[in-house]
Structure formats: structure tokens, C-alpha cells
Amino acid sequence: MREFSISMFSWFFGPPPMMFSTSLLALVGLALAAPASDQPAADSRPNIVLILADDLGWADLTCYGSKFHHTPNLDKLAAAGRRFTQAYAAAPVCSPTRAALLTGKHPARLHLTDWLPGRPTEAGQKLVVPPFEQQLPLEETTLAELLKAQGYTTAHVGKWHLGGKGFGPLDQGFDLNIAGDQTGTPLSYFAPFSSGNAVMPGLESAQNGEYLTDRLTTQAEKFIEANQSKPFFLYLPHYAVHTPLTAKKELIEKYPAWDGTFHGRQENPIYAAMLESLDESVGRIMAKLEATGLSNKTIFVFTSDNGGLATKEGPQTPATNNSPLREGKGWVYEGGIRVPLIISRPGVVEPGVETDPVWAADIFCTLADWAGVPLADKKLDGISLSSRLAKPVAVGPEPRTLYWHYPHYANQGSRPSGAVREGDWKYIEEYQTGKKELFNIGSDIGEGKNHIAEQPEIAERLAKKLNAWRQEVGAQMPTLNPDYSPNAQQADGIVVLPAKTVEVRGIMLRYEPLPHKQTLGYWVNADDWAGWEFDLKKPGTYEVEALVGCGDGNGDSQVEFKVDGQAFPFTVPVTGGFQAFKPFNLGKVTLDQAGRKTVEIRVLKKAHFAVMDVRQMRLIPVK
């Protein structure tokens, strides 16, 4: 071990007091340098760098197909290691995946299934979400605790979001914590890193205007420099590229200007600039490992906690588009849970592109395995990939079943759902309506065709497996909301029925949440239908209005809108596009009594490929 210096002491503990003697420093250095007799030799223990991006989409890196973003350092890392094309987060939101990554257990088993603290149950939600852990329990053994017991020095630099006081990184096996607390978003992306009286831990002193991603990288570099002579675990979970979208001006200006109109593609220059800073961070860590001679004895892992934010959620959003994957963060469709994953270990990991499905808990098991930690006596949900990574990429997938359980309403518009993937088949179950979907991911990466009617045996088998798994892990399920009040009438008397609150019955019809859609769409089956519930407070007569879109060559379908049992036939006109919405007055309806009412839309005759899109309905009081 290199000589323990006053500068190293100052970096870890702050400046020594004036009366701190050099002889005491010598004793501290001697104690730190003394090898532990029950530990393996230092050169047999690889260093570990685990970088976790926040809300980074599967298709956002150049090496994953992006034509808009600039990620040369991550591309270089991918070329030197194994790039996984079917890697998954443990959940479609952040905290559950972080918990799985650090424990090797499924969020459903941990009862930590949503971001912390999560959304409260609202009146418009039919289900009450189950109570769940508000921090990673101290009883769980984290990767940091395992590695620390093996003689590793451990550092957490970045976003924690797994609990506050008493449950932070320093309570969960990390020797050092910079910037990690209970919050899910940074207090500021530019220094000072504070808000009111709150300051991000370890960032109390910062040069004015310093960018958070850069500063976290500097702290990580210092940790590597100070611990280059002993095995270390550096966990660097960046706040980037999470909202609020904020980037350096000079990087934003490198990308085409954007007026905020969404076109269903990657086009956000602020997000692109944030990602470029993240990529620069990866390059700096790689360069520091090279400069300290540690590249060949360091495991380097890069991944994301969930899919990219593809819906509107705050200024300058959506952040990205996950095409060809469906939807994004918050959804159990591929865009919400499939993430980039790159694992590099020179001399051990055979470079290549891995197509086998893997998920977050596998990272825990793989890193622990490489560090020599015995896992046979632990109840884990992941598996070690170490033996597979040491071989050239295999042809054909290994048998594997992966599960997701998200019993929550997401900010991005999804409802409580579960999913299971086995081979190329993926089964999704929405808990509120019982809607079931079955997709062949191998031939339909965008989850466009629901095979539920064509393959009932496969769907039934996967449904049974999902239910049995929920029972085995003790998954918490939502319950009916006794205070449910859907689409409550506004103070001005108008009843608004947006597509996002519709309940769909059928196979292909669905709500499409992307900003340029936000519609009830994909109406290609005549038997599919949709409906709303709403609470009427003021009886009276109302104009019935529908916001409808229909593409060229698809007009003339005949549909029926039914409001509280009163029918309104409608022949669908061409509007210039399925997202070229136009309002249509369907007629007047008289509702004599207050209370729970329903609206239904059914197809009487489908004229062409698709019927129409419906973004919204309104009942407007007749004065």
C-alpha cells in the first residue's frame, strides 16, 4: 500500500487539527497498511466501477442505434466489453431497480415497488396501491456490505433514493457518500448544489456554476486516486439524465434547435447535452483507471434504472423517444423496462453483443461472484453471468423466466400491472381492468400485435406462472378504492373524459400516451370497445363533444357513442391524420339525476383498416 499522507487524510476526514502529531499519522498509516490475514491477496480482487444512469432509454446510445445522441466513450466501452441488447430494469421506475441492483432481490420480494415516497392514492384511481417500504431495509445485505467484508473500500457518489436519515449509503455498507440522500432529483444541476437550507451531502463547497455531472465525476476520480493500491467498489449512480432537464449551454448549442413540438423521435437538445456530459463522465473514469494502471484489473458496468422518459412530465419534456420499443418510463412495455447494459472486464469478459435476456439483480450476483463472495446460502432472484461472460457469445438464448410487478399508478400514465417474459413470449396483465396482452418479443419488438386470442394456451400458462410467482415472493396487490370518483365534474359544469382515463375492452385497442398522440388508438378490431365512468353532480342537458382523428383512406366507419344509455350514431370522417384531431358535436343528452354515469364507444361497421383515434370527450352544459 502506498504511504498514507496528510492530503489523503484530509480528503477522507477533513483537515487534521494543529496538534495532530505526525507519529499518530504514522500509526494510522501502519494500521491501514496492515493486511487482513483472512482476506485474499489484493491482486486477486478486481476493482469494481458500477455507473448507473437515471432514466436513460435503451435506444439512446449510439452503440444502441441512436442517430441523434453523441456517446463516443460509451461506444468505446461497449466495443471492449459485452453489450447486452435484451437487458432489463427490475421495474419501470427508479427506486425498485436500485434496490434490486444492490441486493440481488426482486422489488416485489423486498416490498419496495415504487419510487420513494411514491404517489398518494387519488379519487380518480379505481384501485388503492398497497403500502410499501419507504427505504431499503437495514436487514437486507447490500453489495457494498458484501464487498466491504471482503476487504473492499466502498464509495457511493451520486443519487441514492433508497431512504433518508438512518437508511443512507453510510448505513448500508458504503465508507463514503457524496450527494446521496432520500431525494429522487438533484437540488440543483448547477452549483451551489442546494435549495433553501438543504445541501446535497458532500457538495457544500463548490465553484459557482459547476455542473453536477462533472462534479460527481471529479469526486469519483479522487476516490480512485486515493484507493488505487487496494480493492475498491465505486458506485456512481448519476442524477443525469433525470428531470429537471438541465445542461451546459455550450453542449445544448451543438444540437439542432427544438421548438418543443414532439414528432415521435429523438430530438431534445437539452437531453442530448445531458447525455453527452454523462458520456464524458464515463470517458473520464476510463481515463483515470488507465492513468493509475488499473484498467486491466477493474470491472466496469454501465446501465440504467429504467427506460427513457417518453411522456410529458415537466418543462422541456419528453426527454427522449424509445422507438422501436413501445412507450417508456412508468410502463411495463419494453420502452419502460428494457435498458442499455455494458459489462467490461479486460482479459475475462469476451467482447461481443449478448442477446440473452438478463436483468438488474444479475449484476449484483455477477459482481459478488467475481469478488469471491459465496452466494449459495443467500435467497436471491438474480443469477451470476460470470461463466457466460468468460465465453464467446453463445448462439440461442438460455431458458429464463423474468417477472415484473408494478402495483402502482405511474406519473407517466400507466396503471397497476404485472408482466412475465419466457423465451420470446411476454404476457402483461393490467390489474385495474384485467386486460391481458401476449406479445412475441422476438418478432415484434414494438409490442404491436396482441396474440391473446390466437395463443390462449401460452397466455394461460404464463398467467399461472405470474400468479404463482407473486404468491412465492409475497407480492403486494392493490385493492378497490372505496372513495373512487372517476372523472368528476368540474366546477364550471363540464365533464372531461380524456383518453388516459378510458377503460379498454378487447385485443388491439389501447391508450397511447406519447405526447403527439395521447389518444385512444390502434382501433383495428371491430369488436374492441372502450368506455368511461364519471360522477355527475349537476343534472341537466349537455352537448356531447368528441375529439376525433382519422387518417386518409380510413373514413366512413360507423360507430355509436352511448352516454348513460342514450345512443349517438356517428360516421367517422377523414380529418387529415389519426393525430389531426377535430371536435365533433354529436348532439344533446339530458341527464336527470346526479351520480355515477357511463360513456361507451362501440363500432357498428368498420370500413377500412382502422376506425379512428379519440383523444377526448366532453359533456358541456347547455345554457
Structure, explained:
The chain is of the alpha+beta class. It folds into 4 domains: 1-33, no CATH class; 43-116 and 141-390, Alkaline Phosphatase, subunit A (3-Layer(aba) Sandwich); 415-479, Arylsulfatase, C-terminal domain (2-Layer Sandwich); 495-621, Sandwich (Jelly Rolls), CATH 2.60.120. 21% of the residues lie in helices and 25% in strands. The chain contains 13 helices and 28 strands. The strands form 7 sheets. Strands 1, 2, 4, 5, 8, 9, 10, 11 and 12 form a 9-stranded mixed β-sheet that branches. The chain has a 5-stranded antiparallel β-sheet with strand order 19-22-27-24-25, with no helix packed on it. A 4-stranded antiparallel β-sheet has the order 13-14-15-16, covered by helices on one side. The N and C termini lie far apart (85 Å). Residues 1-42 have low confidence and may be disordered.
Please describe the topology of this protein.
Blueprint: H1 6-13, H2 22-33, E1 47-53, H3 72-80, E2 82-88, H4 94-103, H5 107-110, E3 127-128, H6 143-149, E4 153-157, E5 176-178, E6 194-195, E7 198-199, H7 212-226, E8 232-237, H8 249-252, H9 269-291, E9 298-304, H10 334-337, E10 338-344, E11 352-354, E12 358-359, H11 360-370, H12 386-389, E13 401-406, E14 417-422, E15 425-430, E16 436-440, H13 456-473, E17 479-480, E18 495-498, E19 503-505, E20 510-512, E21 519-521, E22 529-536, E23 540-550, E24 558-563, E25 566-571, E26 577-591, E27 595-605, E28 613-621
Parallel strand pairs: 1-8, 1-9, 2-11, 2-12, 4-5, 4-8
Antiparallel strand pairs: 2-10, 3-17, 6-7, 9-10, 13-14, 14-15, 15-16, 18-28, 19-22, 20-21, 22-27, 23-26, 23-28, 24-25, 24-27
Helix pairs in contact: 3-9, 4-11, 7-9
